What we know:
The chain is an alpha+beta fold. It has helices at about 45-50, 60-80; strands spanning about 5-10, 15-20. Mean pLDDT is about 75; it is low at about 1-10.
Amino acid sequence: MEGTQVSETQDGVPSDDVPVDDVPVDEVSVDEVSIDDVPVVDEAVREALRLLDGLPERPLAEHVAVLDAVHGALQDRLAEAQG
């Protein structure tokens, strides 16, 4: 069975002409990634993203609330930055 066709635009984002199977994907386990490993300058953003730490181990029923909290915190920070 062939993969769905996508193509790569000038900025390297896949679009519709390259088979999905040919698009490279980094193989990084979510268990290996921590917000402390990501270069984030804004401490409010870092704290919002820190809420994601341990998410894979939490019950699936809690994921929506955690993601909603992160989204809300990031929206608040963006609103502050925009004045």
